[in-house]
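Field reference: sequence -> structure
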Amino acid sequence: MKALREIAPLPKLKWTLIVLFFSLTLYLRQNHQFFINLILFLTYKGNPQKINLKHF
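Structure field:
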């Protein structure tokens, strides 16, 4: 919280950042499978034969 206060000294800006952060974490939690697929795709881009197709 101290770092957040230093980044956003204005209370309104601080609360906006907090709301954005929590909405982003909720969004990521709901769509975690998409991000896992994206990470797997980016990880195995160089070696397509390693991709486990059941993940997609």
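Note: The chain has three helices and no strands.
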